[in-house]
Structures are given as structure tokens and as C-alpha cells.
Amino acid sequence: MAKKKPVNKKASTRKTTKAKAAAKKPAARSKAKSKKQEETVTRFKLGDTVHVDEVYKDWFIDYASYVILERAVPYLEDGIKPVQRRILHAMREVEDGRYNKVANLIGNTMKYHPHGDASIGDALVQLGQKNLLIDTQGNWGNIYTGDNAAASRYIEARLSKFALDVVFNPKTTNWQLSYDGRNKEPITLPVKFPLLLAQGADGIAVGLATKILPHNFVELVKGSISVIKGRKPKLYPDFLTGGIADFSDYNEGLRGGKIKVRANIIARDNKTLVLTEIPYSTTTSSLIDSIISANDKGKIKIKKVEDNTAEKVEILIHLHKDLWGKAEKAKEALFAFTNCEISISPNACVIVDGKPRFMKVSQILAESTELTVQLLKKELEIRLHELNEQWHYLTLERIFIDKKVYRRIETADTWEKVIKTIETGLKPYIKNLKRKVTTEDIVRLTEIKIKRISKYDSNLAGKRLKDLEAKIKETKKNLKNLKDYAIKYFEELLAKYGKGRERKTKSSAIETIDTRKVALSNHKLFVNRSEGFVGKGLKKDEYLFDCSDLDRILAISGEGVLKVSKVSDKIYIGKDIKHVEIFRKTDTNKVYNLIYQDGRGGSCMVKRFTVGGVTLDKEYHLGKGKPGSKVLYLSMNKPNDVLVVDVLLKPKPKLRYNEIEVVFNDYDIKGRSTNGVTLTKHAVHRVKDVQLTDKELAGLMKDIKKNGGFVKDAEPPKLKTPTEKASKKKGKSQMKLNL
């Protein structure tokens, strides 16, 4: 058996031919190719051994460039992607005012687009659903429900009047060969309108993405007029699906911007809500799925959802009896937990001069408007040239017939003599012509039929010349006053096509909803203090309170360990749980008052603290974390509340006092990790609250206010002997209180 030769994995080889490599290259957008592209195609010959690592970089760059330039990102010049451009061009070729089967249009487009019928069909349906460039007939799907269009053999389309007026002009179009070289296709279409902003665009390329949101037709036309007048209009998206949007962070469509879009929800009665408009990029199906999902998770209580959407959106939400008469609360829950509110992040990227470029919406509008003005100028120049040519020929024709020049050619016996005779006959009358008489002009005169010469009306010809002169004068005037002409063009566009294109999306500020506040308390929380467990599954143990899935539970064990966790069936905190609550990070008005024993047989410490930021399920020791630490007293109050407790000490021989009065207001409010202040080294029996009388409380407050919140030269806690009465007289403090 022959032994196999070792394979060099590091440098795999591939044989390729020049023709095969060239076939994989995308169609060029212009006649001139870059030097680098030519080298990539031609440097390999038949029989060459090529290392993959030598060509991978070039081929990948070629592929990435092709996807960016030829597939995913729209061009600034006409605002559309290549597949859309080819569809419109193919439709224009067969345009006769009647509808065409979409299957036929797809087939015609395949002459220009090398990527199959599926991609063409999808792009054609998307164009039709935008209701701007294409008139549709048949079932084209539903942008509200997300239903697909019928098969291409059943639906029909034709170009809209708007598209015929604005998008096409062969005289101002630059052409290139199609991918197979058999046909010509436009490099870009001469669109005289900011089409990119009107339709929007979505695309994902290699290492690049674009998301341009659609804008209102009327506002774009008025915006273009403002740009021509030297103003800077502000533009905000407008969606066919309507809704309510907050554009405060739109950032002119650049990356990093964000808009919030909400469904339009109204209360039909105290038991039913109705959705009449949905957020952009959602459908009624996805919206209903998100509502049902939120209901299943207990975030909102819904009895039933009905979808009655047809030409207009209508989703009926029948509320659970717990939400009857609470329409606003139900709305907030829908916005917080379902797709009734979404965020959209724009990323305006377009192709300019063959390269991707990130641009503001205002820049795109300004560039598109300037391109429109230049196209209008080019059309006027072409029209002026054509009018001058018509005037020139009609003048020659009039001289040729009125001055009987045609009779002189009767004696000419050769073609050259015919041309020479006509040229000589015209010479005395051509002083006022706008250009020289060419041989082509003379040949054209010889093609006039005798019948036409015999019926020639000089007066009618003179009238036609005067009409042409008037048109020439008007065209020159428009060229001279190009801005006014462009403004008039946009005004006519607005008058002709602006009806029925009013803004559908309402602009309104949208406040961020605290999901924990609107979440339904759908769980009961229990605690087993002795064993140290908290959870919604401990139904045989002590009931604490109701909570939701979004709540965070803060618990403190008897050893002084603080822990914040999600709501779950059962979670271990630590034995002898002292306190459990719903943790609110934003609640800065809560102070924890703690007295604890620092380790087994250790000192008694006192501290006031706030919790602040925490990591879920992480254990935080409120003391030094010594074994045997024990919480002796724990309470919560507001920073300015006065709190006094008595610390009762265990009896001990020769102990001169058995109680310590602690005024928590004497201690600074610090962070969770501080150790606190040593209160006593003696063993503590228990701690009890002191109920102050109104007179005692007033005296204490007066003493604090007297020193402006400061009490200098702080004294130690008040010590009480067994024979002394409990004195509520406040000692001095180092802390300033916000009274």
C-alpha cells in the first residue's frame, strides 16, 4: 500500500485560473478598477500553486467591500440599495401603466441581480409595503400583523406616479454593464427627493451595520425647501405604524442615539384597554405574545386578549378583576413588561463616493437636497440644449423651404454636389443662427419629403419658432434663478403628492418607568428565622409580606451578616434572622441603627449606617466579621428621627452601673462597612426602646437645635446606677443633624 504524502496544513494550496478568479469578483461600479483589484485578479496563472494565507486577506477584503457596497448599505445619491435599484429599473423597462405580475418583475430583475429570486421578492414586497414607489394589487401582507404577502404569481405591481415623476430620467442617468455584461443598468438613479430618509434603511454588512429610520414625506419636502433657503430644519422619524415616540435622545440618527416608542393605548371602559397603534418594528402578533408572556410570569394580570386588526390596529385587552378601574396602572405595566414600549437605536450609515460614511440626518437631507438641485440644473441644461437644437433645425428648415434652396439641387448629379449646393444656398441666411451648420444638418434637410414641402406653412413655422424662443427664455431664467426653481419644484411635489401623508407618530416625552413599582406583588414571602431561610416556597413558616419577581430581598442574620438576593423559593441567609425587607436602592431616606457584640465575649459596638450599592447574594458583615458576633439591637428610621434606647448590662460584682442610655442621633451616619463606636466592654443583657414623652422629646430637640446641630466636646453615654431614675437628658454630639 502506497504511503500517503504528508500534508502541509500551514500552507494549503489551491489551483485557480485567471478566469475563475475573475468570475468570483463582484461587478464593478465604474469602468476604472483600482490597481490593487487588478493585481488580485491577474497575478495568478494556470498551474500556479497559491498559499491560502497570501490570498485570504485580499479575498476577504474584496468580499467585505462587496457586501458593504453591493448588498447592505444604501447609496446617498439615490437613497436605495442595489437590489432595490435593479428592481425599480426592471419595472421601468416594462412600464406601460398596467399592473405586472410580481413573478414577471422578479424574473426581469434577475437580468441585473445575481442573487436569486428570493432576495428580489423580499425586497420588492418591502418596497411595496412602504407605499411610496410602488402601487400594489393583491395580498401584499400586513405591516401591522406581520402576515406575509401572497406568492409572487398571485400579486401584481406597477410604478407609482410619484416614482415615475421623481426617480427616472435616462438623460441624467449614468450607466454600467450588468454582472454578466449582457445588459446595462444604472449606477445610481437620478432621484430628485430625499428618498433615503423617507423610506429608511436597514442592513448588516461585514463589520458594519446601518439603521436609518423613516421620516415624514411632508416634513422632508418642507425641510428641503428650508435647506435651499439656508436654514437648518430639525427632523424626527415618523412611522407608518404610528405610536408615541420620545425623540429627546435621537442624536440626529447617529450611533449612540436612542428613541423610545410606545403603543397608543386607550381605556374603552374600566375593564378593557384598546391598542390602536403599535411601536415601529413590532407586529400585533409579537405584541400579543409579549403580553401573554408577561401575564404568565405574573407581571400583569390579563383575562383575555383579542386581535381585531385589519386595515387598522385594534387589540382588546380585557383586564383581570384586580385591575378593574386601574387603567393607568395597567398601562404602566404594559409599557414596563411588554413590547408596548421599545427602544430603537439608529445608526445612519450611507455610501458616499464609494465608501461607507456615518452622517447626521440633517447632513443627509442637505446632501440629498443639493443633489436634487444639481439634477434639476442638469435637466434644465439638457432641455435648453434640446430647445436650441429644435430652434436651429426649424430655422434651417424654414430657410430651406421659404428661400427655395431645395430647387437648386435639381442640377446636382452627385451627393457631394448636393451637399455643397445646399450649403451655398443657406450661406446668405445663416448669420442669426446660434451655431454653425454641419453636414448632419444638411443631410437632415435632404430627408424632408416633397409632400411636406408642398404643404409647408411659413406662418405656422414662425409661430412655432416664437414658442420655442419663449421656452428657451424661460429655461434660461430658471437656470439663472436655480434656487427659486428648486423651491417651486418641491412646492409642486408637496401639492401633488403630500395629501394623506400627514405625520402618524406623535412626539411626546416618555418618562422611565420603575418596573419594581408597577410590578404586581404576585408572591407571598415567608421566613424561617431560626434555621435562617427566606423564600416564597416556605409556606408553612412565618408570613412576611407580598412581593414580585422583580423585587430584591434584604435580610440581616443574628450574626450581623447582610445579604441581598432575588426572590426565590428558598435561600439561606444565616441563622436567627433579625430583619427582612424589600430592598430599594433608591431609598436614601432610610437609616439602620445597630448595636452588636463584636465576637464571642467582645465589646458592645454601636453604629448608624445606610446600605447603598450591593452585589446580589454576597455576604456583608456589619461588624468586623469575628466568630460569635451577635446583633443585640436593630431598627430603621429616617435620618432626623430621634431614637433613644437603654442598654441593660448583665449583673456583675463591683459594677457601678447597670444601664447605658444611647441616643442614636449622637452618632454619625456612615457606610455599611464601618465598624462603629465602642459602647462598653461589659456583657449586655438586653436592649430596650425608651419611650420619650412629648416634653422630653421637645427638650432633646431644643438642646440639639441650640448648638446648630453641633454639640462640641462629646461626652460618653449616660450611665445609670440601679438607684438612679432614667434620665432622658441628651449628651453632647459631634454630629450635625439636618433638622
Determine the N-to-C terminus distance.
Answer: 98 Å
Q: In angstroms, what is the radius of gyration?
A: 42 Å
Helix share, percent: 25-40%
The H-level CATH homologous superfamily of the domain at 520-690, spelled out, is: DNA gyrase/topoisomerase IV, subunit A, C-terminal
Beta strand count: 36
For this structure, what is the CATH class of the domain at 520-690?
Mainly Beta
Please name the CATH topology of the domain at 520-690. Answer: Neuraminidase
Alpha-beta content class? alpha+beta
CATH-level-2 architecture of the domain at 520-690? 6 Propeller
Mean pLDDT: 85
* Low-confidence sequence ranges: 1-42, 708-716, 722-739
Principal-axis shape: elongated
Helix tally equals 19
Main β sheet profile: 5 strands, mixed
Strand content: 15-25%
Write up this protein:
- This protein has 739 residues and is of the alpha+beta class.
- Among the domains are: 57 residues; 119 residues, Topoisomerase II, domain 5 (Alpha-Beta Complex); 86 residues, Gyrase A, domain 2; 171 residues, 6 Propeller (Neuraminidase), CATH 2.120.10.
- It contains 19 helices and 36 strands.
- The strands form eleven sheets. Strands 27, 28, 30, 33 and 34 form a five-stranded mixed β-sheet that branches. A four-stranded mixed β-sheet has the order 16-11-10-19.
- A hairpin with a 4-residue loop joins strand 20 and strand 21.
- Helix 5 crosses helix 6, helix 12 packs antiparallel against helix 16 and helix 12 packs across helix 17.
- It is elongated.
- The N terminus and C terminus are likely disordered.
